[in-house]
Predict the structure.
Amino acid sequence: MNKQFLENILLGSILFDRFRLIQCLHASDESGIYLCADANARNKLVVLKIFSAEYLRFHQLRDAVIQELQLSYRVRHKHVVRSEMVFEDSDFIALCMEYCPGGTLAGLLSYRRAFSFSEVLEYLTQLCAGLGAIHSAGILHRDLKPENVLVGENQSLKIADFGIASLGGDEIDVSRDRMSGTIGYMSPEYIRSGEFSPASDIYAIGVMAYYMLTGHFPFEGDSIVDLLTSRVLHDPAPVRTLRSDCPEELDALVMKAISRFDYYRFHSCTEMAEEILRLTWSVRGEPERLRA
């Protein structure tokens, strides 16, 4: 079973005797993500993330996947994608999740070169709230990136795929099509020694903020080696070098989140959220700066 098979499951197929497949949203060799109508809930739209049982057995990942899917039930927060239930048969293991109609943050970034300051502060508030709930449940996301942030109603952000993307171990995916995702958001300490902590997830949020403000990653290069080593050896250029009208306080907040050393970053999502709130209030009386 491979990506081609998962991409081409016939539309209209009934999965697990209740889900009518409407559209394949994404597929890889190990899993596929599908928009479905749930016949047991008056055809409510849901998303199924389906893993190939054959792939999981071959790579000895079946028990780990089940454990991580079950962990997802521990998080109930408006800025985290809600998990409904797990299904399993001889061919597939599937997680049923809520459907977010707005696509992903990656989709927004693909056609928005830069966001306003007020938008960035609002999105950071939502991301910190969702990630804080995940951390409070004892889970590290480990692969936080725009592709794993869904957009719900009223542009509300919801974090998805926490704890699942890293199940295959700590391998770095160096394929070109993943460079702006997994590699682009890896923390320096993870690259340096494989260490991962809540501060590593916070680093990923900081990278997203940097990109929303400037349209660029903190580090860009022509090779994977350049991308990885520069992050370990050098500090990124401040936001204001690429966007001179950015308020100094916002620049400082983002640069703290993406500090090369994890002990200089925010120690928790709560600490970062408090700073975001303080900054939001401090610039509320300066609407021109917020609209820039």
Remarks:
- The longest strand covers residues 19-27.
- Strands lie at 14-15, 19-27, 31-38, 44-52, 83-88, 92-98, 149-151, 157-159.
